[in-house]
Amino acid sequence: MKKVDVVGAVILNEKNEVLCALRSQKMSLPGLWEFPGGKIEENETPETCLIREIKEELNCTIEVGELVADATHEYPTIIVRLITYLSRVVEGTPTANEHEKLIWLPMNSLHTLEWAPADLPTIEALKRTIL
Questions:
Q1: Which residues contact 48 (CB under 8 A, 6 or more apart)?
Q2: How far apart are CA 9 and CA 35, in angstroms?
């Protein structure tokens, strides 16, 4: 089975809310929420990839902080390793270029959304940090 390493940004704003991205109908797993990010290219660090992907997907520049989660999820046709990092926007305003929509949610409300399965370990890790 194909394996892919991806990174995701847990982007926090000044109110400590998290940016949540709704997968569009053109993406796999449409209608599920995720942390924005993408596939790590050859010879790219996870942090460098995350900065590049967020610039491409959201038209803004982020600063990458500490690791939140590093978890693997096996879908029916692919194995996804998702590495997520706390991040903050340092330039620009996030814009939904590829996603259906973006929303800011308080950390204690993240569980109210229907997340892509690979993103669930990050939700659990965030829950532990706010308790």
A1: none
A2: 6
Q: Do 35 and 120 touch, CB atoms closer than 8 A?
A: no
Q: How far apart are CA 131 and CA 129, in angstroms?
A: 6
Phi, psi of 95 (to 5 degrees): -125, 135
pTM of structure: 0.94
Tens-level pLDDT at each residue, the chain (131 residues):
999 999 999 999 999 999 999 999 887 888 999 999 999 999 999 999 999 999 999 999 999 999 999 999 999 999 999 999 999 999 999 999 999 999 999 999 999 999 999 999 999 999 887 64
Give the burial string for 26-40 (b: 16+ CB within 10 Å, else e).
eeeeeebbbbbbbeb
Please report, for the domain that includes residue 75, its CATH number.
Answer: 3.90.79.10
- The total domain count for the chain is 1
Quote the domain boundaries for residue 57. 2-130
Q: How far apart are CA 72 and CA 22, in angstroms?
A: 21
